Amino acid sequence: MASKGIDRRDEDEVCPVCKSSRYLNPNMRFLINPECYHKMCESCVDRIFSSGPSNCPVAGCRKTLRKNRFRAQTFEDIGVEREVDIRRRVMQILNRREEEFDTKRNYDDFLEQREEIIANLVSRTNEAKTNAQLAKYATENEQSIRANLALEEQEATSFQARMTLEQEEAQRRRQIARQEYENERRELQAGREDMLSRLASGTTADANAIARESSKVHLKKSSARRSEEERIRLKQAALRGSETKRGTPLSNSEIAGAADSGLIKGLKKIKTPELEKPYDPFMGLVPETRDYFTLQESYPSTFLERQRQNVQGSAGGYDLREYYSRTMLEAFAGLGVFVEEEVSKREAEKSSKPTATEGAAIAAASE
Amino acid sequence: MIEDDIYRTSSQFRVWSYTEQSLQSLRATTNVIASDRVRTALRRAREAQQSATPSATGTPQPGSDVESKASDEKPIDCLTPEEELVFVRYYCESLLELGDEYKPPLPTTVRATAIQYLRRFYLTNSPMTYHPKKIMATALFVATKTDNYYMSLRSFAEAIPGNPSPDEVIAPEFLLMQGLRFTFDVRHPFRGLEGGVMELSAIAQGQGQPTPLLPHQTAESLKQGILSIAPPPTPSSSISDRIGRAHNATRELLKTAAQMTDVYFLYTPSQIWLSALLLSDRPLAEYYLETKLGGPITSTPSNPDPSNPLNEIRTKLFKVLSDCAALLQAYTPLSADASQIKNLKRIAKKHYKCQNPEGANMSQKRDSAPSRAVSSAAATDSGQVTSESETERLAKKRKLEEQKQNGPKDMFGGELVPDRTKGQ
Predict the structure, then answer these.
(1) Do A347 and B392 touch (CB under 8 A)?
(2) I need a labelling partner for A341 at 20 to 30 A (CA). Which of A104, A320, B112, B313 fits?
(3) A302 in contact with B at a CB cutoff of 8 Å?
């Protein structure tokens, strides 16, 4: 896929528009336009489309092409090129993710539907209708499409980052291993030299002992090194694990606002979290509601009028409306409370479950 | 109705509202307990006088003694609950006059609060145990504090007849508070009356607002309504004059009759001032209630529509208001009636004989008060007060303390075995 363009040095390739061949112009590049996928050389594109959009010069093709849409061909087969383009376009629009569906089955249905659409477009069956469907879906779900796109991008970058990290890690590991091997070799050599020198300087009696000792030292060292290696590997594995874990929540983060269009079935209902209402200390009760009266802005009263005009009082924060409110409330507080009835009910309730104090009172009275 | 729910949260409704029956039975119980106590206390005092031996002051066994000795002694004549009530009422009335002694005179609400304190206190305490004369001054002093009418204790005490010392005035303070179950909030009908008059004059001037539940009312229709009601008992020049007159008459009723009768215990402040208004200007009060309740208040439901809460209130309110009005109307001041004065004198004489000698010592109570505060606060919460039974306990305690003080006279200390076990 990553192979750069189609630069086959095909000697007898000919531009279908100007009929100039590569033989005459070795630097010739062929371009195509995804409107009609007709191949033409770069100079033809320059010549025909520099002055603005124009019709395709290929006979029988009436597509209007623009210069900026021309690009180099990726695949040799124009049909493959076209299918890849269509696929890319459709995938970009129908970019639902698996976690957006209720069930796996729904997701599979969606994938199948997508493939069908792509096949339709490729084989040009029902092309207009399918395109209209796609366009409608795109406008309806603009937001979720964009969100999913962003997610994909994010995933791709995080994947990229992880890959580079892993590569670096591997490189470092290799280097360490190499260094270790080097060290070991050097040590081994030094040990052997040491033993030789000792053997040379020592007597025959302790030659055996020296040989045994040196081999033991070597063994010990290698086992120590092995355990060290083990430790490093474990540590790295743990590191990697935590890294992947950190990577997942990014990709799983929920996307809000996907409207359930008619095109795709089985999408999860997205619950937009309800906006937190402002705290209401009265739990729905409007503090100044009253049932028996409507509080007025002012009441006629000669003796209150003086107070109302009193600038000193109001400057100090005294508001006569407070007085009105309290006075009117007290005028009617308890108008509908029927003590006889309610108290007898209260006492009946109390007597059904005698309290401790009442018991004490009886005891005190009978003393 | 929101206003009603607000009232239901008040301590006046929660603690100090009674049915007529429960009020009566509470007074009767208080009287019975207090009389028993008076009898035993007086007998004990007599015994103490008769026998010279100090051991007689030891704790007696009340149960057995009462039965054996009750027959051979002249029975002590105690006050009946009704007599107690009249006796307390006399002090309530003098409390009203006491307010005028000050310069400037005490506000009506302070006096009214003090009267209500006194009435509440004597629901669970008997005047035979605590003399109202002493409690009265304390109640007034507490009322100046709770009604935010500051006055120094010394200047307060100076105006009290008999010139008690400041210490004497506040001596029963804690006792009083305990009797009040530490609820100092008294909902008076005075302010409610002001509100009603305020709105009535607004209606008369064509500034009335419709009641929330009856939105069809308009300022104009309300004004037409108030102008077309039946003429008052005494002719008046204008509607504002009429309202002013009704206002004054109602206020006068609330100041006296409402304070001296049981209406505070039986009805809500709103009902009290409306029934007082009914007494002073019936057509006006009826019209006002009609604007509030959307129909005339009658004993029989006019259209039995249970969905409308106003209908139910209307029929119930008719009975309550007429009962309350009757109670207010029945009141006559003690001083206005010669037979009542005579009766009062008789009660006073009787009271002098049946006072509980142990209830008089109140300054000691003040010292021991804080330790008992917790237990009595608990009693407040559970809603049952047994102040009279408290007295007994205190008497025993005091006796023990006296013995402790007498102790050092004994060279080798007091008895090791307490009296109670020794007696058995």
Answers:
(1) no
(2) B112
(3) no
CATH code of domain A7-73: 3.30.40.10
Contact B192/A332, CB-based, under 8 Å?
yes
Half-sphere CA count of B16, side-chain side, radius 13 A: 27
ipTM value: 0.78
- Is A355 at the interface with chain B, CB within 8 A? yes
Q: How many Cβ atoms are within 10 Å of A22's Cβ, its own excluded?
A: 19
Mean pLDDT of A116-138: 90
Determine the residue type at A135: A
Q: Is A165 on the interface with B (CB under 8 A)?
A: no
pLDDT at A270: 72
d(CA A172, CA A170): 5
- Using a CB–CB cutoff of 8 Å, tell me whether A351 touches chain B: no
Query: How close does chain A come to B234, measured CA to CA in Å?
Result: 23
Say whether A300 and B270 touch across the interface (CB within 8 A). Answer: no
Counting runs of H as helices and runs of E as strands, what totals does chain B give? 22, 0
Of residues A299, A337, A361, nearest to B199 (C-beta): A299
What chain A residue is nearest to B215 in terms of C-alpha separation?
A294
Does A341 score more than 60 pLDDT?
yes
Q: What is the mean pLDDT of chain A?
A: 80
Residue B144, CB-side half-sphere exposure with 13 Å CA sphere: 21
The arithmetic mean of pLDDT across residues A216-236, rounded, is 72
- pLDDT exceeds cutoff 50 at A279: yes
Residue A176: phi, psi to the nearest 5? Answer: -60, -45
* Best to test chain B binding among A289, A293, A347, A358 (most B CBs inside 10 Å): A293
- Tokens of residue A149, six digits: 């796109």
pTM comes to 0.60
CA nearest to A302 within chain B? B198
Q: Residue A32's beta-bridge partner residues?
A: A71
Nearest residue to A93 via CA among A129, A145, A128: A145
* pLDDT above 60: residue B60: no
Close Cβ partners of B316 (under 8 Å, ≥ 6 residues apart)? A338, A341
Give the bridge partners for A101, in sequence order: A267
pLDDT tens-place string over residues A40-82: 888 888 888 888 888 888 888 888 888 888 888 888 888 898 8
How far B323 CA sits from the closest chain A CA (Å)?
11
Instruction: Give me the long-range contacts of A59-65 (CB less than 8 A, separation at least 24).
Output: A61/A36, A63/A33, A63/A35, A63/A36, A64/A35, A65/A33, A65/A35, A65/A36
Give Cα B159 distance to the centre of its chain: 23
Q: How confident is the model at residue B390 (pLDDT cuts 50, 70, 90)?
A: low
Chain B within 8 Å of A338 (Cβ-Cβ)?
Answer: yes
Q: How many residues does chain B have?
A: 424
The three-class DSSP label of residue B390 is helix
Using CA coordinates, name the residue in chain B closest to A346.
B14
Collect all residues of chain A within an 8 Å Cβ-Cβ radius of residue B308. Answer: none
Q: For B244, which residue in chain A has the nearest alpha carbon? A: A301
Distance from CA of A319 to the nearest CA of B (A): 16
The residues with which A72 forms a beta bridge, in sequence order, are A31
Burial class (CB in 10 A: 0-12, 13-18, 19+), A345: exposed
Cβ–Cβ below 8 Å for A292 and B266: no
Between vectors from CA B423 to CA B422 and to CA B424, what angle results, nearest 5°? 95
Q: Which amino acid is at B158?
A: E
Distance from CA of A279 to the nearest CA of B (A): 22
Domain(s) labelled CATH 3.30.40.10 in chain A stretch across 7-73
Residue A162: per-residue pLDDT: 95
Of A291, A328, A360, the CB nearest to B1: A291
Per-residue confidence (pLDDT) for residue B176, from 0 to 100: 93
Q: Do B174 and B366 contact (CB within 8 A), yes or no?
A: yes
Instruction: Say whether B384 and A364 touch across the interface (CB within 8 A).
Output: no
